[in-house]
Amino acid sequence: MLKNFLTTHTTEPPLISTFWHGLMLMFILLFIYVAVKYHDNPYIVETFKWIQIIQLVVLYTWYIGFRLPLANSLPLYHCRLAMLAVVFLPDNWRIKQYFALMGVSGAVFALGYPVFDPYDFPHITSFSFLIGHYALLGNSLVYLMNSYDKKALKKYQILFYTFALDLFLVGVNHLTGGNYGLMTHPPFIKGENILFNYLVVSTILSVTLILLDEIFKRRWKKKSKIISN
Q1: What does pTM read for this prediction?
Q2: Which of 75, 108, 160, 188, CA to CA, is 20 to 30 A from 81?
Q3: Cβ pair 138, 48 in contact under 8 A
């Protein structure tokens, strides 16, 4: 059983039934509720953080221990970068707020439209996918609820960070043959026109982050108004 759980023999991504997909969506709502309601609870904050750390350590121990190719084993997917940033970067860094916004949107998208690695379930990658994205959603929301700064990010900065990061990922994919950032094979897009994929993915991600940032800006104003009264 453990051998199958840690195998490096690829097969096909596991199929998800309607029931399990619906349960995954319900857990998204549950984690959002817990993070928003208990964002100032130190126990909840530390729990989310340590779940994320353990998940990352276990996953990358497997990658390194079994010497998986760089096309799969680098921490260069958007959500993986967000996991590392939200857990390890100082709270007052602008880039941490950027990745926290990415963590919320990326986790919701990934869990709403899951793309598992090609291994039979149960496997370490499928468990890491689920645990990692739920923890990312919780950590990102907790950070934004506690530390969001409406002056930290301008819209043009979100655009610049996103297009610059995605261009870097395009270069990494060219060197490794990977699909980091879903630039080579994006969901819903047929064909392998790298420039087209880059522009579409970066635009969608930028718009999503700007809209999410605007939601928190409006919440910050509302909170400020309540406090001032």
Answers
A1: 0.94
A2: 188
A3: yes
